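Async update (no meeting this week)

Hi team, since we skipped the sync, here's where things stand on the single-chain job. The sequence we agreed to prioritize is pasted below, unchanged from the tracker. I ran it this morning and attached the output directly underneath so nobody has to dig for it. Comments welcome in thread, and please keep replies under the output.
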Amino acid sequence: MDLLLILAVFPAAWALLMVMLAPTRDADAFGTGGALLTVAGSLLLMSRTLSGEIVTGWGTHLRADVLSSAALMLTSCVFCLASLYAGPYLTASSGHGQLPAGWRVLYWPLVYLFYSAMAFTCLADNLGILWVSLELTTLVTVPLICLNRESRGLEAAWKYFVLCSVGIAFALIGTIALYASTLRLSGGAGSSLSWAFMLEHGAGLDPMFVRLAFLFAFVGYGCKMGLVPMHCWLPDAHSEAPTPVSAMLSGVLLNCAGYALLRIAAVAARAMGHGSVQSVFLAFGLASVILASFFIVVQSDLKRLLAYSSIEHMGIVAIGIGLGADGLYGALLHALNHAMTKALLFLSAGQVVHWHGTKQILRIQGVLRSSRVTGLALGAGSLAIVGLPPFGPFLSEFLILRAAFLSGHTLAGILLVGALGLTFAGFLAHAVPMLLGNPSRGHEDERETANARTVLMLLVTIILALGLTVPAGLDRALKACVSALDWS
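Output:
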């Protein structure tokens, strides 16, 4: 049985099944059921790779080590939670005219194609397939971003399509250059697009082509990851997309782009030296954190506030990668913490925006009084995302800061502390008035659906648990991921 091909193709097949059965069956039930199956498949793969097994599929085009399976596991978990939330959300949004009824039929097939593309990204050993799958994520999410057919949504989708397509074109040039760097091996006989092959023979790659490849790949996949200055599409796309799509864009798509960039960076480090590669991550990570902190202070739109927070946290992940093996452990943990926390924030913000009919922060008040569950979720997510204990992001940010000071990157550590302090003040200055005060008339007693309550409370529990301790299994998986990359 080709497990990897099944895991990657199953969501696309499920999307086709839903298109065929949508007129006569409950699409929401099919959507949630399929998402649960993706989690089960990811768990099966994780159980095999955690023991050190390398799983291959589709000939040699797909390959899963512990890093691949961990990326897929995180993707499937966020996808499942967003799918559980999405059914009642789509019903309510269609009922209030926020989403055209006809477009609801297209939501589930498109979102399953989106997941399938991300699954191929996580499992690809062939860097050409990796590039194609990330380009496919752009194509299938464009209609999801403008699902409401409003002018701002169409503008955001167009900007997202143009900028990410330009970025992915840069990544294509990088992929071609990386392939060219293998031609010197055995006079061209050993040329390959296999990541595992390149990593094994990294010292023998042509350094000139590797430098070119890393430059173009960093710009291309860094654009998709939302790193400054390639981030311009992100605030518009994340703020205009339907709430479950925003949660997946911020929670897992950015991580998938970071995963692709990390895979290529691991090869470049073998040929160019780790120091030159890590310094690039460090510089762009600091730029992202600093710029995003200023934009967070001046935001007036709730979902744009969360989008700029995503840019900041992708910068923190990049800083961790740039600090070497100790920082990489913290970066991978922070990617997990950010995915769960940002999913919590976008889903709870979706409830608030739906009830109030606006994303303007100044027009939202008294969420804690109008809804205990959503208020608790939004409050916990806000405290977590600014790095307060006892939530998960505090622990991973602490590990990254510790690595910065212990590795001699004192200036980077000081700049990161300053940016985090500014973000702390700015984000909570927006969040506290929304949570406290008296609800406006008509919003005194809001109620979530059972699905929304379950998802929100589960996410709160996860980010709280990750802040108290790193479970032994997770610690083992993170250390195995660091070892797989040999990030000295």
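Quick observations from my side:
The mean pLDDT is 89.
The first strand starts at residue 55 and ends at 57.
Reply here if anything looks off.
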